[in-house]
Structure prediction request, 219 residues.
Amino acid sequence: MKILLADDHALFRDGLRLVLAGVDADLQIVEATDYPEALSVASSEKGLDLALVDLSMPGMDRFSGLSALCDRLQEVPVVVVSANESNEDVRRAMACGASGYIPKALDSEVIRVALKRVLSGGTYLPPSMVGWEKETPPTKILPPPRLTPRQHDVLGYVARGFSNKKIATELELAEGTVKLHVAALLKTLGVNNRTEAVFTATSHGLVESPAPGASHSRN
Prediction:
């Protein structure tokens, strides 16, 4: 069995290796320390059977990174192993395509049982979330919009209230190019203006909340 183990904490990776030894003695583990490296491994490694991923890793927003990894791995089950046990985070992780969500606080035997369940085609959720999929949610939970690196750059300046002209100066781009990026950004976020773009991006965790009084110029 070959498993992708993605976590930015070496100590936890070492501990999880010991847990995984109880799942399959003949085990090959490929490690990654951030989302970009995990995505690279997902593209280059053949024959992966499972991916264990820490939700909060460097390189990308949590759910953007998780969603991208699930898309990259396709049929390979992706299981989040996280210290965060927020029910909302569990829901969003599952909406991104995860096959399970394992709190790091669980003991090793429970983790092994959870992984065997996923490997057999099932799903594992924390005890507090069992049955949540039967509930009628108030709104449909969707993964966050996926932005290109340049759109992320432009969004950061839009959130700070920069005009297109000032963004062009900061990024050393033509103002017309910035306008195109802003238009693409609005389309990707499904909004009509900069204010809505900042609000939507903030709600998805793509940018931090803008400082009070920040103006969003349309120029």
